[in-house]
Structures
1.
Amino acid sequence: MREASPPDFDGRAQQGGGETRTHFGYSEVPLGDKQGLVDDVFHKVAHRYDVMNDLMSGGLHRLWKDVFVAKVHPSKSRPFKHLDVAGGTGDIAFRVTRAGGRQTKCVVLDINPDMLAVGRERAEKKGLSDRLTFVEANAEDLPFPEGEFDAYTVAFGIRNVPRIEKALAEAYRVLKRGGRFLCLEFSQVEAPFLAKIYESYSFSVIPLMGRIVTGEAEPYRYLVESIRQFPPAEEFAAMIEQAGFQRVGFTRLTGGVVVIHSGWKL
Ligand SMILES: C[S@@+](CC[C@H](N)C(=O)[O-])C[C@H]1O[C@@H](n2cnc3c(N)ncnc32)[C@H](O)[C@@H]1O
């Protein structure tokens, strides 16, 4: 692993010295190594993931997720098949399931069994297990046929995926015609004053919080750095278009701290 300066990455894997390399936070790593490193992070944080989300965002992530899921519009009366990729401990899938009718079924897909185990346990407690399926798989290679789902969501997950273009192509493939792609992801804060506060909060307070609550600061440093490496909203929207989606657009929330991206398979 070698250190890389923050601004030189555009969200795509880079070719250099005969080996394709990418970023893991601010470090530069062989493309093939990134997923294993990401998996270690989520293995370490899984048992405290939900508590830390509340602490780090001051509860704001719940509001962002509510606004995000309000765009899904699952049918109240007809069958609706939803796929939540990088679904982790189930926050998005629980909201979609509750918003839809009895025939709304959700698949929570994640590469990390530890995150899924927490999700399964939570679903059981909430009495939602019969409408949810938990699948351990990679966003880059979805184990579903073409045209299977009415909607696809990915929340705070896409920046962790090594080959983002592959994940977007898979999202397009598994959606039905008329299906919607929605992505919730951290982004760059626009207002300079807010950006300064956000920067020092992210790099000083979050890793410290991680150390106090979980005993580990490193996974939280990666989470913060990976946000800085993710392409700006305009660039990511162009990647969504390149994957074939139409009527692509995005909405910034909380001064640009997070962005909701949307596209349709028409
Ligand atoms: C920050 S968590 C987001 C969890 C959940 N969506 C939420 O909003 O609370 C990121 C998730 O992405 C998952 N992930 C990372 N790489 C992945 C991949 N290639 N395919 C599927 N999931 C992946 C991680 O295991 C982790 O559960």
2.
Amino acid sequence: MANSKTVIIKIKRQDNPNYKPYWEEFELPYRPGMNVTSSLMDIAANPITRQGKATAPVTYDSNCLEEVCGSCAMLVNGRARMACSALIDKLEQPVKLEPFSKFPVVRDLSVDRSVLFENLKKVKAWVPTDGTYDLGSGPRQSAEQQELNYPLSRCISCCCCMEACPQFNDKTGFVGAAAISQVRLFNNHPTGKALKIERLKALMGDGGIQECGYAQNCVEVCPKDIPLTKSIADVGGQVMWQAIKDLFRS
Ligand code: SF4
Ligand code: SF4
Ligand code: FES
């Protein structure tokens, strides 16, 4: 901390996807309980750099402000995490903010994370309930099933796990831990399992589950403590069994 009354924030900025990034530094009055998002709000209210230069307010994503919507993910002091739950008191200063490095920058700290949604579509991460009429209630889930599935359903699509994963890059085309964990969730679901084979087939081959090097960075950074490595091991077993069945059928 510069002194006990101020907070220094260094931000990697980029005016549009084609421009070069540059750094700007801001010095803000300290308030107890402030977090990275509230600091960005303070900068927006008075966008003057530490050197006294007027600048454009910093672009960033946020919505719920309570680690539920998944929109505010960024690199805070080099670690993928949610800005709204990153308390300034717990961060080393100057606090360094950067956009995710593996996703296209839209502007400043805002990135395009649509690849996750494309990957979720690829693995059909939904319960098939199409129809124009009332399908009635689905099969009941046991308490044990609910206990297993609930933690998996807490994914907020923040993409922290993908940013931290050494295997998630253009070369591998790896779908990433979040999509794999959603396969586990929907394959466990009594109605969702209707698409189980299609999901497992989507995880075979290039970009599939075999790209995972089991480095476990994903589980370290997941803000919702989703048991991602267990999901990868579980779904890996399902994919293997499916591949063996396919072999005997062919
Ligand atoms: S275990 Fe490692 S390689 Fe596999 S998804 Fe997680 S971070 Fe990536
Ligand atoms: S699995 Fe965790 S880190 Fe990955 S997108 Fe979901 S909530 Fe974020
Ligand atoms: S603003 Fe919704 S998770 Fe941070």
3.
Amino acid sequence: MNELPEHVRRNRALWDAWARKYVVSGEANWARDNPTWGIWGIPEAQVGMLPDDLAGKDAIELGCGTAYVSAWLARRGARVVGVDNSEAQLATARRLQHEYGFDFPLLHGNAEAIPYPDASFDFAISEYGACLWADPQRWVPEAARLLRPGGRLVFLVNSFLMALCVPAEDGVAATDRLLRAAFGMYRIEWPGDFGVEFHLSHGDWIRVLRLSGFEIEDLIEVRPPVGATTPYPFVTLEWARQWPCEEVWKARKRA
Ligand SMILES: C[S@@+](CC[C@H](N)C(=O)[O-])C[C@H]1O[C@@H](n2cnc3c(N)ncnc32)[C@H](O)[C@@H]1O
């Protein structure tokens, strides 16, 4: 535990404490056959997070939490591995896995250093997992190492624009003002005990992805439909209909 980077140690304690708040949504998502994504429950058809040819492929979820995304991958025929930094989150994942009759590996660990050999996977995915809570200078090269040439990385995370516009006070929604500087934004610690997040500009994402050996195939700025709802207080539908509050990055490891 001591050799873990400081942000990983802090985020582990945070997620072990938060895990019980994610049980109900984890159960609901395990029960769902058709994936929906992010804080607005965007249908898979709108964002195409999952390739159609998953059957027989090796897939890894980086920061799987309760592992419902891993379950969606397994149901599509992938050989999946879920990795998460929180044993408490994995306890829910293990219980649900058992209830649904799956037995894919669930690893307790840091997505920045995963104990699998190079080129073990065809597909890596993260929805608000390692892509938000791990250091991109570490987890992106690690994802590249784990993927085979031509393998795909897809992740969904808060938009950079929203990170500029959301007030530091907990529970207050993003405003139409730029509240902090874009230059120098990378690691964010919100006041209070909210762990360590990483929010990168588009330029920084492009650079870290390309330097790690990826070609970027798409960047989808997610727009929730009229009438969409979210349990999260940090953005309103009115805001998210005007500006992207979430983004999906799709990259492919260079052959
Ligand atoms: C919001 S959950 C993501 C799971 C699910 N997609 C969801 O949205 O509920 C964030 C997860 O990332 C995990 N996490 C944070 N830092 C991590 C790291 N360095 N390596 C692996 N998992 C990490 C946390 O333990 C937590 O379970």
4.
Amino acid sequence: MKLTLKIWRQKNAAAEGKIVEYPIDHIEPDMSFLEMLDILNDGLIMKGDEPVAFDHDCREGICGMCSLYINGEAHGPDRGVTTCQLHMRMFKDGDTIFIEPFIAKAFPVIKDLVVDRSSFDRIQHAGGFISVNTSGNTIDANTIPINKKDADTAFDSAACIGCGACVASCKNSSAMLFVAAKVSQYALLPQGKIEATDRVLNMVSQMDAEGFGNCTNTGACEVECPKGISLENIARMNREYMSASLKG
Ligand code: SF4
Ligand code: FES
């Protein structure tokens, strides 16, 4: 395949960015999108040019690091996959592909296609955990029976990889789907009940402090989420928040 790439280049957070055009050839349909970018970067390095900076780690849909906006869609045109799992067979020979970073006030650009998503880490630190005794007499989790439906639903919520596609797809840059998934995975389990009140209040308060927008139920986040996190999580978080506010 022969393609034209139009890529956002930005030296650093303070510099102005712009789209730069790169022709690329000899791309196989079975290559992943990131392999295609590796080939582009090899060519740029050979010519003595600066390679395009982009985020990645596991390259198998687990870590949530790859975060590209491809032809106007977070993680590109396929469904239920991250950028690292996107194959070039989703594009046609001769296509022009626009590649931009995830844009949101709370995700400032570090360089080119790499954005700072540490705001998600701070939300997680505010309450996305349970406190357990690790002094040597930790109780085995299996000693507390959990019904299958709750366990499965909690597992579905825990599938969120913190990629930020929900924020990038939302016209308000809302992080509600991410925060709701993290609140839900504990709200459904007995281990999560003890700190439930503080968890939801602190995580929502940190989300607001980071500058994410409000949710207006457009549902774009659910469509673009590579892990199928559903809007039901947001409804659950709203119920948790309401009940915590009344207690608090
Ligand atoms: S909810 Fe989905 S889109 Fe949002 S961070 Fe989690 S996995 Fe990514
Ligand atoms: S590189 Fe880990 S999810 Fe894409």
